[in-house]
Amino acid sequence: MSKVLTIIRKEYLERVRSKSFVIGTLLGPAFMSMFVVLPVLLATSGGDDARTIGVVDAAGGVLARIEQVFAEEERTRVTLVPFARPGASSQASVEDLKAALQVGEIDAGVVLDADFIGTGKVVFYGKSVSSMVMRDDVLRPALNRILRESRFAEAAVPDSLFNYLSARTDWTTFTVTAEGSEEQQNEEAAFIAAIALIMIIYIMVLMYGNHTLTAVIEEKSSRMVEVLLASVSPGNLMLGKVMGIGLAGLTQFGVWALAFFLISQQGVSVGSFSLDVHFLTPTILVSFVMFFLLGFFLYATLYAGIGAMCNSVQDSQQFQGPLTMGLVLPMMLLSLVLRAPDSTLSVVLSMIPLFAPVLMFMRVCIETPPLWQILLSWALLAVSIWLSARAAGKLFRMGILMYGASPTWAGLMKVLRDR
Predict the structure, then answer these.
(1) Confidence label for 351 from pLDDT (cuts 50, 70 and 90)
(2) Averaged pLDDT score across all residues of the chain
């Protein structure tokens, strides 16, 4: 046991004393916060590119209404350019608009029907798919509002009735706790915090799993492993490496968690997003640590076994792909779980050990599942770690002293079948 502790200590100190670890620990939160802060800043500061839209107002008077609506909505980065050739037909103005769009003088064009209030017909001209965003998010709502208000005015609807019919619902959201009490919660902040925690699990498990693989390959290629195996068994060597690298990852996470807690106590806010720890219930915190540890040990043991069979990082590429998909696929399935966290499909997917660190934790964050489901996923992960450790142990024992021949899937399966 003392030899295993020595290996753990060596692997741990080797990483926490490295410059890359210090830099990653200091800059990691800054890079991860970009996923949260940068979109909020862009949304609140109007950081989208300026757009110029050509308008053929065959009806007359609608262009001025659009400018008024944009002014009320503070769309200062959208410029409207009228296209109306004096004494010419509307078709000639449309040709001028298309020519301007073709040479890049404008980014999009709108042609309003001569009886726009009666027909509501609009023709839109764009150059790429990106212009469709301007059509659907900016122009369509503005013109729908102008059409609605104009028809109400033509029908001589009183302002009081118009305001009454145009009223919108006023929502207040409460979360009902397990004890039956209700809490008002910032759902947007809770969702962003959940995604941030999931990204930490994803990045940390993937990053430190790869660290395990490269560490095994480096020692194997340098023949240092031959010296180590003179005093320790292959199984204990693999255990020491996995534990040491895992503790380094846990140390880095602990520093980040402490920094997050201290910053949140200052009441930091960006736009409408407030950084606080009210979202982090004991269940979420415990689940986060458990899924991080279990997910890391599952992937790390598999990466260690693969590394033992390979002579270089290039040799390991063919085996890393399928293993990495175990983390990539659940990230692609997050929207499915978000829409229906208690559906049969979501429950089954979140129980798959390779998917559980991401999908089950997502369920815990958005709508905590029954305790038995969380415990069952932990148990399945623990069993999977035991099975993967046995399989990785075989690969480690057989492959750690193999040199020269490039590994193949057939060779890997043969090693696993042999006792």
Answers:
(1) very high
(2) 77
Residue 279, number of CB atoms within 10 A of its CB = 19
How many domains does the chain contain in total? 2
We report the CATH number of the domain holding residue 146 as 3.40.190.10
What integer pLDDT is reported at residue 328 of this predicted model?
85
Same domain membership, residue 309 and residue 218: yes
pLDDT band at 331; cut points 50, 70, 90: confident
End residue of a domain, out of 110, 133, 165: 165
Domain coverage including residue 407: 2-41+186-417
Q: Are residues 119 and 263 in the same domain?
A: no
366-408 pLDDT, tens digit each = 878 888 999 999 999 999 988 887 777 777 666 665 555 566 6
Q: Please tell me the pTM assigned to this model.
A: 0.65
